[in-house]
Write the structure tokens for this entry.
Amino acid sequence: MNRIKEVLDEKGIKQIWLAEQLGKSYNMVNSYAQNRRQPSLEDLYRIAEILNVQVKELLIERNDQ
């Protein structure tokens, strides 16, 4: 699970802008933001760099006990 949508909202950035920066389609970025699909590690690092955040800020920690 990721927090891409939350981070975009916090920064006031639109998904379409992120898609352009990544060279991905809006539909792909929207799938990431809605957690229907998870980005590859490479894309996750690129997203973090573009948004100027640490990768861990884009992830939701799982509490499997």
